[in-house]
Automatic annotation (TrEMBL):
PANTHER family membership: ZINC FINGER MYND DOMAIN-CONTAINING PROTEIN 12 (PTHR46533)
Superkingdom per UniProt: Eukaryota
Organism per entry: Dicentrarchus labrax
Upper lineage: Eukaryota, Metazoa, Chordata, Craniata, Vertebrata
The protein's name: Zinc finger MYND domain-containing protein 12
């Protein structure tokens, strides 16, 4: 146990060093303030010993507050990562790991989410040696926990696949992304947007290998899944507009929108810049992006993608999407200029 504990503390120290490397005092302070302002009130009772905190009930309350800290730090880190703000994600991810160790110990499955957050942040910053170390710790924790759920397996394989892709080991990346898809489909289903994230990553690898027919097939599956999902969200939104008393399904937050936008744009660029220029796929993807940004209340982006989608759909006689795109265009214009009729 002592060797495992020392290994975990070594990783924490390494993360701290990377956090400080190349950052002046002002930027380090900004990084810390970004997470500290979210958790300050929870830190006070944890760091201020009292007679109550030393009693059994007090210790339980402190553990609950630490658990709340873990969730806040995880949420802040994930939001920053979704927006591509890797440096800003580091303090929250690091604090998430520290609190997880305090609550669960130095070698448990509960540390894996924090390891994965830190790995993703450092991947974005190019610290691949540290990423490999963090994922090794996560993999070891998963191997020791046969009861570990599908979600953790899928997240771990996705992170390992991204690491191998970054280092150029494309075959290893494909293997991990295939495992990612398997575990995600077991947990969320084959048609889930979570599962198709693994298909998207596999398609990126196939595209790098020049295996374009396979890449196109996977991109098509991802586009179809997102189109179905966004169409349902749009339908719910329209029903809510006409009946405000109904329950509205939660839409995406800004960070999630940026993440989905990047994925859909990647596929749209692939189609627009490819030799075959599939108008059906261009219309489908542009329609997805128009719905995404309409739901995100960005009329300008929604109008732009509606225009691209409509132009592409009109190149195909009797295309099924032409009418839905025209309806969306009318919705966007109506909500952008209410009362203009």
């Amino acid at each position: 146990m002592s060797s495992i504990s020392s290994r975990v503390h070594f990783v924490c120290d390494l993360v701290k060093a990377c956090l400080q490397f190349g950052r002046d005092a002002e930027h380090q302070q900004t990084d810390w303030v970004g997470i500290h302002k979210r958790i300050c009130q929870l830190l006070v009772p944890i760091r201020t010993p009292t007679l109550f905190s030393l009693q059994a009930a007090g210790r339980i309350e402190i553990q609950l507050k630490k658990a709340e800290l873990i969730e806040i730090c995880r949420s802040v880190a994930q939001s920053s990562l979704s927006e591509g703000k890797h440096q800003e994600a580091l303090p929250a991810a690091q604090f998430c790991l520290r609190c997880s160790i305090d609550v669960h110990g130095p070698s448990t499955i509960h540390l894996v989410p924090a390891y994965l957050l830190l790995a993703e942040a450092n991947m974005g910053l190019g610290n691949l040696t540290l990423v490999s170390e963090l994922l090794s710790q996560a993999e070891w924790a998963v191997l020791k926990s046969p009861e570990c759920g599908h979600t953790v397996h899928h997240q771990l394989h996705r992170s390992l696949g991204r690491l191998h892709m970054a280092t150029g080991n494309l075959e290893a990346a494909l293997l991990h992304f295939a495992n990612d898809v398997y575990f995600a489909s077991e947990e969320y289903g084959l048609d889930s947007t979570v599962t198709c994230g693994g298909y998207f990553l596999m398609a990126n690898v196939f595209a790098k290998q020049g295996r374009m027919p396979i890449a196109c097939s996977l991109y098509s599956e991802v586009a179809r899944t997102w189109h179905c999902h966004l169409t349902k969200l749009l339908k719910t939104h329209v029903q809510y507009v006409h009946n405000p008393d109904m329950m509205l399904e939660p839409s995406y937050d800004k960070a999630k929108q940026v993440e989905v936008d990047e994925m859909l744009r990647t596929m749209l660029d692939f189609e627009q810049n490819g030799s075959r220029k599939d108008s059906t796929q261009i219309a489908l993807l542009a329609h997805c992006l128009a719905m995404l940004w309409f739901l995100g209340k960005d009329s300008l982006k929604a109008l732009g993608f509606c225009s691209i989608a409509l132009q592409a759909s009109q190149l195909i006689p009797n295309h099924d999407l032409t009418e839905p795109i025209q309806r969306l265009l009318q919705l966007v214009q109506t909500e952008a200029h209410p009362g203009s009729d």
